[in-house]
Design goal:
With 151 residues, this protein is an alpha+beta fold. The chain contains two helices and six strands; from the N terminus they run H-E-H-E-E-E-E-E. GO terms for molecular function: hydrolase activity; RNA binding; RNA endonuclease activity.
């Protein structure tokens, strides 16, 4: 009888432990960098924050609200909306999506625009990428991660 109780207790423990590892994560797989202080804008915000699961589009990308972007990214979007002129000759160039982080589309679907980084001597790592459908994406780590911009 003691063996039967021990076996039941063991089975109960295994069932409880098995249930602990099956929860669905609520954080998107590609959330980008968060929490780094943005010293390039005139706000005291800690930069764009990753989205919650309810903000994650079906493509799996995290999102960022327009108002949570650095000021320079919002300025770049204003230039895109106006059609330029752009400060960098590469702005508007086709973005190849070679990293395949953005949804797969035919070549020429995406175009990239530089987000100025004060103090940088080069174009820096920040970009806005626009799809032909007008969808905008933000990266602050040179295409490693992207967040869909919610406007």
């Amino acid at each position: 009888m003691a063996i039967g109780v021990a076996v039941l207790a063991l089975i109960l423990c295994l069932v409880l432990l098995a249930g602990c590892g099956t929860a669905t994560p609520t954080t998107p797989a590609r959330t980008g960098t968060t929490g780094a202080t943005d010293t390039t804008s005139d706000t005291t915000s800690t930069g764009p924050t990753a989205s919650t699961a309810s903000d994650t589009p079906s493509d799996g990308l995290a999102t960022v609200a327009f108002d949570d972007l650095p000021r320079e990214a919002r300025d770049t979007i204003a230039l895109i909306d106006r059609g330029g002129p752009y400060p960098y000759k590469q702005d508007g160039a086709v973005f190849g999506n070679f990293e395949q982080v953005l949804p797969k589309r035919p070549r020429g679907y995406y175009h990239e625009f530089t987000v100025r980084t004060p103090g940088e001597r080069t174009r820096g790592a920040r970009r806005i990428v626009q799809g032909k459908d007008g969808t905008l994406y933000y990266t602050d780590d040179h295409y490693t991660t992207f967040r869909r911009i919610l406007r």
